[in-house]
Design a protein that fits this description.
Length: 119
């Protein structure tokens, strides 16, 4: 299970960035390694009393993929990832919605600040 957290965060970031890709701007095109690095960097800067619960919630999300498609989240096909993320995004359970909102906020911020670096 080494790297489960990082692989899951990377897959989440790629899915979020992919969903924002309009194909009309150079900043919203893959690869999205810099978006993942930004999100992981923000996690590393968090106080431990916040970072570890987020890590555990992310692991729960990763294992939810086992129920959705028989694989961990980062091993699912992109369309299955999207379905799972949308189900958590619109969940009736607040912490599920909050987890996706957290990652969406950071990933979209990192994605759209790429435009400044590409000019």
């Amino acid at each position: 299970m080494a790297g489960l957290f990082e692989n899951t965060v990377s897959a989440i970031c790629y899915e979020i960035a992919r969903s924002q890709d309009t194909g009309t701007a150079p900043f919203d095109s893959p690869p999205y390694n810099d978006v993942t690095a930004f999100v992981l960097g923000q996690w590393r800067r968090m106080p431990r009393f916040l970072a570890w619960p987020l890590r555990m919630a992310t692991a729960a999300f990763a294992f939810r993929g086992l129920l959705a498609g028989g694989k961990l989240f980062h091993q699912l096909a992109p369309y299955r990832r999207g379905i799972l993320m949308e189900s958590w995004r619109h969940s009736s359970v607040g912490p599920c919605r909050d987890l996706i909102r957290f990652y969406r906020s950071l990933a979209i911020m990192a994605l759209y600040s790429r435009g400044d670096r590409l000019r």
